[in-house]
Design a protein that fits this description.
Strand content: under 5%
CATH architecture of the domain at 284-519: Up-down Bundle
Largest sheet: 2 strands, antiparallel
Strand order of the largest sheet: 1-2
CATH superfamily of the domain at 284-519: Cytochrome c oxidase-like, subunit I domain
Helix content: 55-70%
Order of helices and strands: HHHHHHHHHHHHHHEHHEHEHHE
Shape: globular
Distance between the termini: 11 Å
Oligomer: single chain
Structural class: mainly alpha
Number of strands: 4
Length: about 625
């Protein structure tokens, strides 16, 4: 394998010398190794690694913010944090985890796996893909820049409910620009998400290998496609809300300002029209990961594949019709409340169907209890607990009692931490050999799983009882006579265990990246195409593009059960024919840097600076259009 990669690199160097340069003015070659190669890369696999590393760093940041919150609540009347500091941490923890940790971690899996799973060389728009990453990093920097301004980080909650975000409570003209930075950062993060979603939709629809029909797509790719469509439909709502809020704060509009006739309830509708589909944007990739891990370690096909696919599509559709179950206490009226209660109950059906499909896959399987399967099973159980409490919230009378209590905090964390995070850890362990060509030690992976599992349940399960006993969310302290002391102390100890487990596992991953045991090809005896071209795959993914004859084609090909159909009239690329790959480019990062400057200038009300940055961004896009397709040739071995 090493000899093949070295030979491929030598051939690539010779090929570049004879390859046609880009059509535009930026035809100068760029280094293929070192820091410059990462700053200019358009390779979907490298971009995926950039997404993953950045998301894990933000995960650690969000985790530290959560630990400070839990330490404040460990005992009654604690003064570790002030009320404002608590609100700042609460705001930034939620924002970081949702927009800068879980979503980009899903994007990392999408970027790395989708082209490989569908038999493509790269995504449809490689340079746009690199631009999406740098815009994501830009948005994360802008949001967190609030920590370094005089007023500190925003303290408006990760949901930014009006009128907390108005100038009445966080006045930018008195130097409080952290809320403006938060607004601008969310806008920029939304741009990155929409760009990425468009790229994935086009890639999956147009770049599938010959014979890869829609009903032969891996389940992970199907869930990625549904997620991408949800991003395209959901993010415009939060974009509209943020623009309206920006108009209120900077230009004296009256969308949400009550004193000028605005309607704060409008913010809730716009936010939750995005916010509830966002839950499924975060959880559908988890469904896809588990639907790949479970069949591999059960050594049997996914039970009810068409039903799993259809239920994912139904979840994506119904997810846009249940947003107002977050607003049962706002006085919508009986008709609206009943409609959204029924919709919220209905969406539990396709979600429950997936649980039965995974159990059906495990039933009768030849189970190999390896670390990825342990994390996948942990996901199934934790997500079921979160789902049960979610169904309870669909009943408006019960929701009225649980609303804004710690019962809701327990619910959302069982869904998004017990759900998304557990599945992401399963995916990291499962695809790590593919990405790095090395193995994560099984024994250390199991130890990390049990530490995380115990810490997670010790942290969040007591919150159900805290909520039922009346503890409101977003409170920074409490009286010892409330009876909340013991569950809060247990939750804080659990959070320390959970944090230690995550840090331990990430340390194991870093160690394995550098000195892990070399992985053999296809170490898990997997089912899908990404494992068919070596570990790690070459830059061009496939020497010869596959012709797909069955679902789980790679499994059938390995075990000699592929029927040699004649229904695919497509000739493979000759091994001697060079493969054209897109060229690297400085323009994605440079254009994103102009967006970073513009966002910082605008949030600080430096309009001349923002205008200059806007001109630089337009200039970068103009140069991008002149750069041409470019590319270089790779000779497969």
């Amino acid at each position: 394998m090493i000899e093949r990669r070295l030979k491929s690199s030598a051939l690539l160097g010779r090929a570049r010398a004879h390859a046609p340069g880009p059509a535009g003015v930026f035809a100068r070659p760029i280094a293929k190794t070192g820091l410059v190669s990462w700053l200019t890369t358009v390779d979907h696999k490298r971009i995926a690694i950039l997404y993953g590393v950045t998301a894990l760093l933000f995960l650690l940041l969000g985790g530290m913010e959560a630990l400070l919150i839990r330490l404040q609540l460990a005992v009654p009347n604690n003064d570790l944090l002030t009320a404002q500091q608590y609100n700042q941490l609460f705001t930034m923890h939620g924002t970081t985890m949702i927009f800068m940790a879980i979503m980009p971690l899903a994007s990392a899996f999408f970027n790395y796996l989708i082209p490989l799973q569908i038999g493509a060389r790269d995504v449809a728009f490689p340079r746009l893909n690199g631009f999406a990453y740098w815009v994501f990093l830009t948005g994360g920097i802008i949001v967190n820049a609030g920590w370094f301004v005089r007023s500190g980080a925003p303290d408006v909650g990760w949901f930014g409910f009006a009128p907390l975000t108005s100038n009445t409570f966080s006045n930018q003209f008195e130097g409080d620009v952290s809320t403006d930075l938060w607004i601008m950062g969310i806008q920029v993060l939304g741009i990155s998400s929409i760009i990425g979603a468009l790229n994935f939709v086009v890639t999956i629809i147009n770049l599938r290998a010959p014979g890869m029909t829609m009903m032969r797509l891996p389940t992970f790719t199907w869930m990625a496609l549904v997620t991408a469509f949800m991003v395209l439909l959901a993010f415009p709502a939060i974009t509209i809300a943020m623009i309206a809020l920006m108009m209120d704060r900077s230009f004296g509009a009256n969308f949400f300002e009550v004193s000028q006739g605005g309607m704060p309830i409008l913010w809730q509708h716009l936010f939750w029209v995005f916010g509830h589909p966002e839950v499924y944007i975060l959880i559908l990739p988890a469904f896809g990961i588990v639907s790949e891990v479970v069949p591999t370690f059960a050594r049997k096909p996914l039970f009810g594949y068409p039903v799993v696919v259809f239920s994912g599509v139904v979840i994506g559709f119904l997810g846009f019709g249940v947003w107002s179950h977050h607003m049962f206490t706002t006085g919508m009226g009986t008709v609206g409340t009943a409609a959204f209660a029924l919709g919220s109950m209905a969406i539990a059906v396709p979600t429950g169907v997936k649980i039965f499909n995974w159990i059906g896959t495990l039933w009768g399987g030849n189970l190999r209890m390896r670390t990825p399967l342990l994390f996948a099973l942990g996901f199934i159980w934790m997500f079921m607990i979160g789902g049960f409490s979610g169904v309870m919230h669909a009943a408006a009378p019960a929701d009225a009692q649980q609303h804004d209590s710690y019962f809701v905090v327990a619910h959302i964390h069982y869904v998004l931490v017990g759900g998304s995070l557990f599945s992401m850890l399963a995916g990291i362990h499962y695809w790590f050999p593919l990405i790095r060509g090395r193995m994560i030690p099984e024994r250390l992976g199991r130890v990390a799983f049990w530490i995380i599992f115990v810490g997670f349940n010790a942290t969040f399960f007591p919150m159900h009882f805290l909520g039922l006993n009346g503890m409101p969310r977003r409170t920074f302290t409490y009286d010892p006579n409330t009876g909340w002391s013991t569950p809060n102390f247990i939750a804080t100890v659990g959070s320390l265990i959970l944090g230690a487990g995550l840090v331990f596992y990430l340390a194991v991953v870093v160690r394995s990246w550098r000195r892990g045991e070399m992985a053999r090809p296809d170490p898990w005896d997997a089912r899908t195409l990404e494992w068919s071209s070596g570990v790690p795959p070459p830059e061009h993914n496939f020497d010869i593009l596959p012709i797909v004859h069955a679902r789980d084609h790679w499994w059938h090909e390995k075990h000699g059960s592929v029927a040699k159909h004649a229904d695919v009239a497509a000739a493979p690329v000759s091994p001697a024919e060079p493969i054209h790959m897109p060229s690297q480019s400085w323009l994605p990062i440079l254009t994103a840097s102009a967006i970073l400057l513009g966002g910082l200038f605008f949030a600080n009300h430096n309009m001349p600076g923002a205008m200059v940055a806007g001109v630089l961004m337009i200039f970068g896009i103009w140069c991008w259009s002149l750069e041409g397709p470019g590319g270089y040739l790779v000779h497969p071995t």
